[in-house]
Design brief:
single chain, 9 helices, alpha+beta, disordered C terminus, disordered N terminus, 4-stranded antiparallel beta sheet, about 230 residues, about 10% strand
Length: about 230
């Protein structure tokens, strides 16, 4: 007989056998990609960035994917209006993360309309990065940030939708989502520390340890949701 994971908060973070299997396969694949890059990529960047810069992106990607797979929004009793409002909130949160995290920026007239793909000069997870400079906006689509921010937005959607089901626990659930502001603050701090001098320079600054710790902590709280509604 299936067990409702909402009866035990710890059950949300306890790894399943399937998770361990697919996780092992994913890590093996990622190690292969890193090995290939170490042979074919830029050796000068490797010496500057250090091993931790190789690891950070895959922490974001793996933790984000795990959280999305493990989280199912408890929206069976939610109204269409609540789902729509929660979706708008989650979309806005993703937009805020994308802006503060440097994925989206203001437009620039010089070099407008230029699309570049950065591949071999930055480690996997940082690349392949797609950059675009337009009149209205600039995009810097870094894979690990894109995956991480989408995962956070999805978790916020699930958290708020779950919290809205109960008046009392809903308030507590929304208060627990104060941790959602941590990645925004960490992104701002990283931007100040790392500056805006391009992808390769940003990788070599080594200022992303804080944002990685904050990301993992935020995902853990949003998956666990100790103050979320329960049945």
């Amino acid at each position: 007989m299936a067990t409702d994971t909402r009866t035990s908060p710890l059950a949300r973070v306890r790894p399943r056998r399937e998770t361990l299997l697919w996780g092992s396969l994913l890590v093996t694949l990622e190690l292969g990609v890193l090995a290939a890059y170490s042979l074919l990529g830029s050796s000068s960047l490797v010496s500057l960035a250090g091993v931790r810069i190789w690891v950070y992106p895959f922490v974001w990607i793996n933790v984000g994917l795990w959280a999305v797979v493990r989280t199912v929004p408890a929206g069976s009793g939610a109204s269409t209006r609540n789902r729509l409002l929660t979706g708008v909130l989650a979309t806005g949160y993703f937009g805020l993360l994308a802006y503060t995290g440097g994925l989206v920026g203001t437009g620039m007239a010089e070099g407008a309309g230029v699309v570049r793909v950065v591949w071999t000069t930055i480690p996997p997870g940082w690349g392949p990065a797609v950059t675009y400079a337009g009149d209205l906006a600039t995009l810097t689509l870094v894979p690990y940030k894109l995956v991480g921010y989408l995962a956070l937005a999805y978790l916020v959607y699930a958290t708020v939708l779950d919290a809205a089901r109960s008046a009392v626990t809903g308030v507590l659930g929304l208060l627990s989502c104060v941790s959602c502001s941590w990645p925004v603050l960490a992104s701002l701090a990283t931007g100040v520390a790392g500056g805006g001098s391009g992808l390769a320079a940003a990788v070599s600054t080594g200022s992303y340890g804080l944002s990685t710790v904050v990301f993992v902590a935020t995902v853990a709280l949003l998956v666990w949701r100790p103050f979320g509604s329960r049945e």
